[in-house]
Amino acid sequence: MSNYHIKNLEEYYQIYRKSVRDPENFWSEIAEEHFTWRKKWDRVLEWDFKKPEVKWFAGGKLNITENCIDRHLLTKGDKTAILWEPNSPDEPAVKISYKELHERVGRFANVLREQGIAKGDRVCIYLPMIPELAIAVLACARIGAIHSVVFAGFSSTALATRINDSDCKMVITADGGFRGAKTIGLKAIVDEGLTQCDGVEKVLVVKRTGEDVHMHKGRDLWLQPLLDEAYSRCDPEVMDAEDPLFILYTSGSTGKPKGMMHTCGGYMVYSAYTFKNIFQYKDDDVYWCTADIGWITGHSYIVYGPLANGATTLMFEGVPSHPDYGRFWEIVEKHKVNQFYTAPTAIRALAKEKLDYVDRYDLSSLKVLGTVGEPINEEAWHWYNDNVGNNKCPITDTWWQTETGGIMIAPIPYATPTIPTYATLPLPGVQPALMDEKGEEINGNLVSGRLCIKFPWPGMARTIWGDHERYRTTYFSGFENMYFTGDGALRDAVGYYRITGRVDDVVIVSGHNLGTAPIEDAINEHPAVAESAIVGFPHPVKGNALYGFVILKEVGESRDRTNLSKEINQQITEHIGPIAKLDKVQFVPGLPKTRSGKIMRRILRKIASGDDSSLGDISTLLNPEVVEAIKEGVIKT
Questions:
Q1: Which of 295, 444, 462, 634 lies at a C-alpha separation of 20 to 30 Å from 388?
Q2: pTM (2 decimals)?
Q3: CATH number of the domain bearing residue 267
Q4: Which of 486, 488, 475, 501 lies closest to 260 in space, CA to CA?
Q5: pLDDT by residue (tens digit) across 128-146?
C-alpha cells in the first residue's frame, strides 16, 4: 500500500494508524521513495520539546529546487509549471514550462551570485503576484540563500522591521504593482523603508508598471538587463535537510513580528505530501490557490508543494472583484481549473453579489474546492458548495498555520465525509491533543479545549529567527512536552475537529493573523492618544473585523471624532498596512483592567460583539465603573 496518495477513508485510517504508531518509519518511507536526495540522512528524527529542538532527516543532502524543477525535466519538461493570469483580463496569460522555469531560475540564481549573495544570506522579496516572485523564491533556494517574502501590501515601516530583523543584504522589488483598479508604487515604499535599514547592499527592480522611479546609484539595479547577460545553467547548492530555507513573518501577541524559520528537507516532504492528498492532484490537472506568495499559503501551496509534485500551479495578480465579481469564475472557465483553493473572506464577499456573476461561467472542470485562513462559516460553505461546486466538489476546510508549514487537519476529498464548519480529521503524522486549563489532556469525544500537537511533524518551523527563547515560550511553555497552537477546538462524537478560534491576543481578519500589540503601538503614537486596546468582532465578510477602544490624552479633545478616527487608521496604514485598519473606533474614558494592570480583553470582546448581557464577575476589576461607560458608547453600526 502506498503511503503517499490516500484514495478512500479505509486507506486513510490504515495509513493514519501506521503514521502514529511508527512516525519515523512512515516519514522515512515517503521521503526516500518520492524525493531526490544527494545523500540519505543519518537519522530520521531527533526531538526534544523542552529545549525545544526538532531535526528531521538531519545529515541528508538535497536542494529543494532539484525536487521542484530538475527531476521533472525528462518527463514533464514541456508541461506548464506556472500559469500566470495578470490583473487585467485584457493582458494575455503567461505559461512557463518546467524547462523554461529551469532556465529562468538558473539565470536569476546566477544574478544573485554575481551580486554577492551566497548560501545563508537573507534576501527580502517585496513583489506583486507576478512570475518573478515565484522565480525569485526558487532562485534563492537554488543557491542556499534564505528568502524572506514580505506581502506587498505592508507599509514601509513594517517592511523595514522585517528587513532589519533578519539582516537582509538584498531587496528584490518592482517599480510597482497592479491590484484591481489601483497601481501601487512598491519601489517608493522600499525607498522609504530603506532609510531605516543599514544592511541592504543591493536592490533589484523588476519593471512591471512602467512608472518612473528613483534609482539609488550604486544600490539599485534593473533586473532584466542582468538576466539578459546571465547564464541559464546554475548548479544547485547542496543543502543539509536542516539548513534554513526561508523566514516568514507572522504577527504575535507582542509588538514585534515573529520570523518563523523553516528548513529544507522536512518542509519539502510535508508540503508536497499534504498538497498531493488535500487536493487529490492528478498529472493533467490545473490547480489554483488564490493566496499571495507573501503568506505561508502561497509558499506551501502555490510554489513548493505543487512544483514538488510536478503540478501546473496558477498564479493570479489581481483581486476577485476586478473588473467585476465574476473574475475568479472567468479564470476557472478560461484555464479549466480543477482544484480551487481560496479564503472564506473571498467566498463571503462573492456570495453577497448577484449569482449571475457565477452562473455565466462554465465551472464544470472543478473537482475539489478548498478553504484556508480561518474556519468557514456554514452559510458560506453552502453557498460555495451549491453555486461553485454544483454539489459535486468536496470542500476541504483546511486548518494550519505559518508555524506548521503545511495543512494539519482537513478532510481528504473523496475520502473523508465532510461537515460544514469542521476541519474533520488530522492528516497522517499529525497527533492533536485537547488540553484543559490545568495542563491535562482531555480524552474521549464530545469535548473541547486548547489545541496542541504532541509529536513533531516534518513541516514545523524550527525557531523564531534570532529569538529561540521566544519560540520556546510562545509555543512550548504552555503545556509540557506539547506544541500549543494558540487555538481552541472541539472534538465531536466521531472524532472530528472544529476550530473555535484564537485563545490569545491575535485576531484573524480576512484570513490574516493580526497581533493586537503592533496595532495598538501604532495607534498610541498618535499625539492625541493616551492608550488603546484592539479586539476582534464578528464581521459578515471578513469573519472578524477590528474594534478599537481609544483613550485620548485630553478628555475634552475638541477635534472632530470622525477625523480623529481617520487619522488613527492612517497611522495604522503607515506603520503596518491597510489590512490592519479598524472598522470601528470608540473613544472611551478608560479600559477595564485588573489590579495588576492587565486589560481584560474578554470584556471588550463581549462588548464589541454586542453580547454584553453576561460579562461575568467584574467586581475584581480595578475600575469596574468604566465598563458601563464603554457599553453606553458602543458603536452599533
A1: 295
A2: 0.87
A3: 3.40.50.12780
A4: 475
A5: 999 999 999 999 999 999 9
